[in-house]
Amino acid sequence: MEIGAYSFGDTQRNADGSLRSTGEAIRNLFEAIKHADASGLDYFGVGEHHTTTMPASSPGTLIAAAAAATSSIKLGSAASIISTDDPVRIFQQFATAEVISGGGRIEITAGRGSSVETFPLFGYDLGEYDELYAEKLDLLMAINNANDSNITWSGTKRPTIEDLAVVPRPLGGRLPIWVATGGNASSSARAGQLGLPVSYGIIGGAPHRFAPLAELYRRAGAQAGHSEESLKISVAALGLVAPTKKEALERFYPGWVNINVEMGRLRGWPAPDKRAYDAQAEAPGAYYVGSPDEVAERIVHLHGYMGHMRHFLQMDVGGLPQEHLLESITLLATEVKPRVQRLLAQK
C-alpha cells in the first residue's frame, strides 16, 4: 500500500481572515512536496484548480520543478483537467518532468473537473462536458501508447494531428495514466474497459460505499481482457494527522469551515455545520482526521472493501497553517505508513 498526499495549493490567511498571496501558496506547496520526499512519503499529487484559495493552476509546472528537487517520491497530477486543456501539452509537460526525475516517478491523472471554472476560463462549452473528456482522453492515450514520436490522430473537438512529432518521449516509453472519478459508474466502467488505473476522490459519505464501483471497474477490465495487475485503484480523501485525535480535529476544522463557506458561495451549498464535520471525521465518515493509529486503522479498514493500492490525503484546505501540514506529512510517512504495512501484513 502506497501512502501519499495531494494538494490544490492552499492560500494562507491573515489573522483577520483575509487571504495572503497565491505566490506564497505555491511556494508552500513546493516546500511540502520536498518535505514529503525527505520524510519517505510514497506519492504526492498536485490537483488543477484556478481559484484564489486553491491556485495550483499548472500541475505540470510544479511537478517538473519538484522532479528536480526530489529523489524518490512519485509525483502526479490529482488531477489534470484534460477536458479544457490540450492533451499534447499535458503529455509534453509530464514527459519533460519524467525525464528530469530520472524516470519512473511521474504520472498523469486525467480528470473531467468537479470544479468547472476551467470551462469559461479557457472558452469551452460546459454542455460538451462528457464529449470533451472522452475525446481528449483518447488523444492522450494515443500519444502515450505510440511506438515513436510521430502521432496521427483525428477527432471533432480538436484539430487533426497528421504524422507530427510529440516530444520528448518519457524515458520509460510511456507514462502511467490514471482516470479520476468522484463516483460516476460510467467512469469506473470506462477505466476498466481501457485498462487504465482508476483514482476515486471520496470527499463525503461512507468511503466503503465505493466498493461496488471498484467491483464494476475490475469486472469491466476483466471482460475487456486486461490483466489483474494493470487494474489498480487509488483513493483520494480529505484528512489530517496529528499526535492526538483532539489536535487533528481542532487543526482541520477552521479550514474546513473556510472551504465550505467558499463552496457554498460558488455552488449553493448550505452553511457549514459542525455536526456534519464531527460525523464525517468519525468512522465510517469520509475524513481521515486523527492520530496515526486511528488513520492507519481506517485506511486498512477501507482496503478490505476496495483493495486499493494507494491512499492519499488532502490536508491543506482553507488556510491550514504550513507547520501543521508539514507535521501531518511527517506523521503520515513515519507513523501511519508503517502501521498500515504492519496491519495489512497481519490480514
What is the topology, as strand order, of the major beta sheet?
Answer: 1-2-3-5-8-9-10-12
The description of the largest β-sheet is: 8 strands, parallel, barrel
Order of helical and strand elements: EHEHEEHEHHEEEHEHEHHEHEH
Separate helix tally: 11
Class derived from helix and strand content: alpha/beta
- Helix share bin: 40-55%
Distance separating the two termini: 13 Å
Shape: globular
Low-confidence stretches: none
- Oligomeric status: single chain
What is the radius of gyration computed over CA atoms, rounded to a whole number of angstroms? 19 Å
Share of β-strand residues: 15-25%
> How many beta-strand elements?
12
What number is the mean pLDDT?
Answer: 96
Explained architecture:
The structure is a single chain. Helices cover 46% and strands 17% of the residues. The protein has 347 residues and is α/β, with parallel strands linked by helices. Strands 1-2-3-5-8-9-10-12 form an 8-stranded parallel β-barrel, surrounded by 8 helices. A two-stranded antiparallel sheet has the order 6-7. The longest helix has 25 residues, at 322-346. It is globular.
Q: What labels would you give this structure?
A:
347 residues, alpha/beta, eight-stranded parallel barrel, two-stranded antiparallel ribbon, 12 strands
